[in-house]
Amino acid sequence: MVSPVLKEIQGVEILSLQDNYIDVLTMDAGEVVKRPMLVRPEAEKEVTLTKSPKAEHGFSSFITVTGEAGPKNMLFDFGCSDDGAAFNADLLGIDLSRVEALALSHGHFDHFGGMKELVKRTRRDDLTLVAHPGVFRRDRFMALPGGVKLKFPLFSREDVKAAGADIAESKEPRSLLDGTCLFLGEIPRETEFEKGMTNAYYLEKGKEVFDPLADDTSLVFHVKGKGLVILSGCAHSGIINTVKHACRVTGVDRVYAVMGGFHLTGPTFEHQIKPTIKALLEINPEYVVPAHCTGRNATLAIERAMPGKFLLNMSCTSMLFKA
């Protein structure tokens, strides 16, 4: 496989249009972390809080890449509800007409649910959604105790068309935004401890088949002089598998930041927290930004193990990783 182009960039800003958490009173903004100031002036030294951002079980991001050709924008994932991420985009006054590319991390409802409303706000009819063909797998479900099947909402090619976008399906790495972003494609499963969702299945010809979530993928950016920024949706492939594959595909060993859902929440994944942290310490990124489905226990453990590298993400927060 010939590695696609991934150009060095001056910086990438990842604005979470949707995440599981919000706290408007943190007051911890800095050079990397930007929290929204959702206030309007009333009088001298008086401001009034406006509406709060929405947080929900889902993930969506508005990304700004700054390269030689100037800033370029894209959307990666679209949140859970119809209007959750779109509400936050409106609240922040984001001009989504600047969006040039769309990408989806995998075919679960908490990542594609808000696509129609976000694409609508771009006011464009020339956008293409890049995704692994497996995002359209039918009849997905989780096997719960007592024989209960938790069915996942269907995502179809017709849904993409109805949202006003074309489709580019790829299992292989693919360049986006003129080579300043890499869609990582299908990720090999190599670590011993990252087993994916062991209770994920789908129906095929009436039979229950284990769902390895082969469609799970991430985005990669190469910040000049700093290394790779890797952004996952849920990292069902395993966040360590994802980082290692990103390094292998790009030929870049240095990792600047690892951000996104690491899917370590709940008792099924408790045993993966320690080896994941051990591997992250060995990779030694400058920043680790757990989000979405990483889970409370895993997030706390990462913060304690890597206090100087940990950044707290939430809805409407921007993370700026620059040269």
From TrEMBL:
GO molecular function, one term: transferase activity
InterPro entries xref list: DHPS-like_MBL-fold, Metallo-B-lactamas, Metallo-beta-lactamase_dom, RibonucZ/Hydroxyglut_hydro
Stretches assigned to coiled coil: none
Ranges for domain Metallo-beta-lactamase: 72-122
PANTHER family cross-referenced by the UniProt entry: 7,8-DIHYDROPTERIN-6-METHYL-4-(BETA-D-RIBOFURANOSYL)-AMINOBENZENE-5'-PHOSPHATE SYNTHASE (PTHR13754:SF18), METALLO-BETA-LACTAMASE SUPERFAMILY PROTEIN (PTHR13754)
Designated name of the protein: Dihydropteroate synthase
